[in-house]
Amino acid sequence: MTTTPNIVQTALSLAASGVPVLPLRPGKVPFGNCPSCTGNACGGRPNMKTPGPCQCPDVCHAWAAATTDPAVILSPPWRAAWRQAVCVGYHPGGAGLTVVDLDDANAITWARATLPATRTVATTRGEHWIYQGVMQSANGVRPGVDIKSTMAYARWLGPGTGSLTQLPDVVRALMVKERPAPRPVTASAPAGSGQCPHRTPAYLERGIAMAEQRITEARAAVHATVYRTFLAVLSTHGRCGCLTEAHIERLFTAARAKGESPRHCTDAWTNARTALGM
């Protein structure tokens, strides 16, 4: 596949305006890790503002590889990626933006009735509504609606129409009001165990706080860290009735702050319970 000159020129133009860019391969998805960075063994690239521990010159860290540096965009590894690319992606959060991705006509109808007008861009199936300001990204915050901002990428589809407006509270509230509730722990205490030995508030609080810290401090293999942490919490407290919805929500919140989607959190929790036979 030959590089389309317009793709690289578009990337350079966006980068010059302060929008971090990356090439997207067929399927409109980022390039995967190179062998040295598989599974983020290299330590990863945590964000766009601060250099991460990985010095890999390849474009293999999805949204975290996005850059505004023309020397990187035109470097040999990136040129090789551009030759396979089908379009330009960008990191909205790195540009100080939030994209409300509306996937269908119903979602667009909801947005027009609910959200303040802002810059809009037509997509294959719907529209991107772009706001000035950043927030946590998440998929499926309501039917047909995804949020793309920090730790996410969006496809560049042109400048759109309309003026940028500030990110409204109604969009931020979607993270609270619309996300799926975490699954409760339904396993009961083993027969004959008597009163749960873990009901001491300080013991439980310390355990949950340590689990939150373990997730928050993860710099690589976040999926695996979240799963192992959920497994550890459930192995200690899952069968004795200690855990409440509030405790589970604290763990899910820590995981979401590291970029995990609500679905990934629920899947990790379910898999941990299954592994323990709960």
Q: Could you give the topology of this structure?
A:
Elements: H1 5-16, E1 21-24, H2 70-73, H3 76-84, E2 87-90, E3 97-102, H4 105-114, E4 119-122, E5 127-132, E6 138-142, E7 145-148, E8 154-155, E9 165-166, H5 169-172, H6 174-177, H7 201-216, H8 222-237, H9 245-257, H10 262-275
Parallel strand pairs: 5-9
Antiparallel strand pairs: 1-2, 2-8, 3-5, 3-7, 4-5, 6-7
Structure report:
By secondary structure, the protein is α+β, with helices and mostly antiparallel strands. 37% of the residues lie in helices and 13% in strands. It is built from ten helices and nine strands. Strands 3, 4, 5, 6, 7 and 9 form a six-stranded mixed beta sheet that branches. A three-stranded antiparallel beta sheet has the order 1-2-8. Helix 7 (201-216) packs antiparallel against helix 8 (222-237). The chain starts with a helix and ends with a helix. The model is unreliable at 177-194 (pLDDT under 50).
* Content of β-strand: 5-15%
Would you list the SSEs in sequence order as H and E? HEHHEEHEEEEEEHHHHHH
Separate helix tally:
10
Query: How much helix is in the residues?
Result: 25-40%
What structural class do the secondary elements suggest?
A: alpha+beta
Question: Low-confidence segments, ≥5 residues, pLDDT <50?
Answer: 177-194
